[in-house]
Model the fold of this input.
Amino acid sequence: MTGTAKLIRLILRRDRIVLPLWILLFGLLGVGTYASFEGLFPTDAERIQFASVSTDNAGLVALYGLLQGDSLAVLTSWRVGFVPMVIGLAALLTVIRHTRADEEAGRTELLGATVVGRHAQLAAALIVTATASVLIGLLTFVSMAGKTGNTGGSLAFGAELTVSGLMFAAVAAITAQLTSSARSARSIAVVVLGVAYALRVGGDISAIGDGGLTWLSWVSPLGWVTHIFPYGPVNWWPVVMSVLAAAIATNVAVELRKVRDLGDGLVASRLGPANAPAGLGHPLGLAWRLHRGLLLGWTAGFALLGLIFGGVGGSVLDIAESNQGLTDIFDRLAGGNGAGQLLDSYFAGIAGTVGLIAACYGVQATLRLRDEETAGHAEAVLTTSVSRFAWAASHLLFALLGPALALFAEGLVSGLVATDGNFGRILGGTMLQLPAVWVLAGLTVLLFGLLPRLSLVAWAAPVICVLVLLVGQTLQASQWLLDISPFTHVPHLTGGTVSATPVITLLVVAAALAAAGLFGLRRRNLPD
Amino acid sequence: MTEAIDAEGLIKRFGQVAALDGLDLKVRTGEVHGFLGPNGAGKTTTIRILLGLMRHDGGRASLLGGDPWAQATELHKRLAYVPGDVTLWPSLTGGEVIDLLGRLRGGLDPARKKELLDRFELDPRKKGRTYSKGNRQKVALVAALASDVELLILDEPTSGLDPLMEEVFREVILQEKRRGDRTVLLSSHILAEVEALCDRLTIIREGRTVETGSLADLRHLTRTSIQAELSGPPDGLATMPGIHDFRTDNGKVRFDVDTDALEPALQTLVKVGVRSLVSQPPSLEELFLRQYQRSDEK
Done:
C-alpha cells in the first residue's frame, strides 16, 4: 500500500476536470428534478394523476423502476432511478482507467519500479472512486434534506446513489484483474452492468404484472438500490447488502491481484486466425472490422430505446390529458406545431431526441479516422496502394450508414410497440432526422480535413444542439438561436406538414461540409 | 532508371521550425543504402515526404521515377514501408495484419510469408494488442518482405529486436541484396548493421546532408589510431601534419593519424625502429560520433 497517497494525487490531477463535473452533476440531479417537478405539477391533483398512471406503465417502470407513492419527493427519487446505472458506469470506467488501462499502456511498470506497493494502484483507484460516490450521496442528502425537510428519506436517497458507485467500482476492480486488455475489462464490466439492468427491468415489470418473477430484481445490484424507496416505504436492507457486496468484491479483487503477475490477466488472451479471411483485403473490409462492434452496440441500444419510447407512448395520452404542463413540453419538443395532437407531438419529440443521440454516433464513427491517424494505423494503410479518399470513404460509409441503421432500428421497434401510434409516420419521422445527423458528421469531416488537431471539437456540435433543444423547451428563445441546430430544421412527419426543402438543404449542407473536409485531407500532412 | 530515390535540396517547415533544410538523398537502384542521423535530424520526415504522406516546401524529390506526392498510390504498389514505431490494430491478429497489408499493396507470397514467420519465430495468431514492440516490428517486417516490391523503406527496423533476431534480419536483407533487383533504404542507429548491410550511406544532421558515399569513401575521412614501442626517440613525429593527440611514455607512443598522413607517419616510425605496433582501423562509430557531436558544439 506504500505510495497510495501519491497515486491518489496523480489520479486527482489526471481527472481534475471530469471528476468534479460528475460529482456535481449527479449530486445535484435530485434537487434539480425536484424543482422541475414543482413547476410541472402546480396542483396536487395533477401530480397524483401522473403518479397513478406512471405506477402501472411498463415503459416508465423499465426506465426508472417501481413507483411507491405520489408525493413530490417520491416522484423525484423515482425519476432519478436511472441514475444509479449511470453512476455505476462512471465508477467502473474510472477504476479501469486508473488500473488496467495504465497497466496495459506500461505506465504501471514505470510506477511499479518506484517506491509503490503492489496494491497501491488498485487501492488508489478505489479510494478516489469511492470518495466521489460518497460525495455524490452527501450532496444529494444535503440538497434534498434542505428542499424537502425529510432527513431520513434524503439520507436513504443519498445512500442509494453512493452504494451504486461503490458496487460497480468493485466490479471493475475484479474485471481489471481478469484480462490483459483494458478494452475487454471494460466490456466485461459493462456487460455485468447491462445484465444487472436487464434483471431489474424483468423483476420490476413482473411486479406490476403477475408478480411471478419479482425475485429477478433481488439478484441484481441495480434492483437492490432501486428498492430502497427513499421518501416512500424506506427499506434499508438493500443499503446494507450493497455495502457488503462491494466489500466482498473488493476483497476478491485484491486476492486476484495477488495471484497474477504484472501485465497478465487471469484469463489468457485467446489466439486468433493466422491468416486473414478473404474479405479483409481492401479498405472496406478493414473498416468493417473496425466499426462492426460500434455498429452492433449502437443498433442494439437504439432498438432498446425504441422499445422503451414506444412502450411509454401508449400511456402518454392518459398522463397528459390531465396535465397541461406536460402537453406543453411535448408540444415544444415537437417544435411547437403539435396543435394538440398529443401522441404525434410525443413521437415528434422522441424522434428529435433519438436523432441527437444518433448524431453522437455519427460524430464518434467519423472521429475513428482521427483515431486511426494518431495511432499510426493510417500511415500503414496509406503507404499501400490505398488512396486517402478511399481510406476516408471506407470509414465514412459506416459513419453515415451506421446512424441510419440505428435510427431505423429505433423507429421500427418503437412503431411496432406503440399501440396507438401510426407505424409509418413514427418510422418515417425518425428516419427524417438523418439529414441533420449527417450535417454533424459532415462538420466532423470538415474539422478532420482542415484542422485535424481540433477534430475533437466536433463533440461541441451535438452538445450545442442539445442545449438549443433544452433552451427551446424552457424559454421563448429567439429563432436565430434555435436555427443554429440542424435539428430545428427537420420537418415533423408526425403532426406536422412535410416540406422537402429543409431536407434537401440539410443534405446539401452535409455534402458541402464533407466535401470541403475531404479536399483538405487530400492536401494536408498525415499524420499532422 | 538508375536512381530509385533522388531528392535534392528538400525543405520542409513545421511552422517556424525547418525540419529539413536542403537535404539531398540519392539511392541507386539495387543497392542497400544506410540513412543515418541523430534523433530529430529529419530521417522520418524525409521518409514521409518520399511516401507522399507529407508535402515538401522546397527542393525536388523523385521516387522510382515518379512524383511521390502526385502519384502516391501507383508508386506505393511498388514499395513496402516499415515505420519506426509499428502500431497494430488491437483486435486484428498479426497474421491478419500481414495478409491485409500485403493485399493492399497488391499481393503477397504465402510461401514466403510462412518462411519469414518461421525465421523470425513469430506466432501470427496473437492479437495485435498482445505483441511486444519487437514482435510488432516483426509483423511489419514480414508483411513488407513477403511483398514482391522493388523498394523497401525501413525506418529503424531492428530497434526493438533482440540480437538473435537482428542477425536474422541481416541474413534476410543480405539475401534480398543477392537477388540484386531490390533497393533498400535503411534508416538505422546500429553501426554494425549498417557496416554489414549497406553499400552506400548518407548521414544527415539538422535537416541537411553532411556526408554521403560508400563505406570506403567515408572511412577515408576517419583516423587510424596507432600504438607503437620504439627503439629510439620519436623525433619530429609529434609535429608532423595529420598527427593528433600525440602522447609518449617510456619509449611507447600513441597517436591518431588522418588517413592521408598514414604513410609518412609509418615511414617515420620505421626509420626510428619499431619493436611492436598496434593499429586500430577507423571505426564507423568514431565517424558518427564526430559527425553527430558537431551539432552539440554549435
Remarks:
- The two ends of chain B are 40 Å apart (CA to CA).
- Residues 3-218 of chain B form a domain with the Rossmann fold fold (CATH 3.40.50.300).
- Chain B has ten helices and 13 strands.
- Chain B has a mean pLDDT of 89.
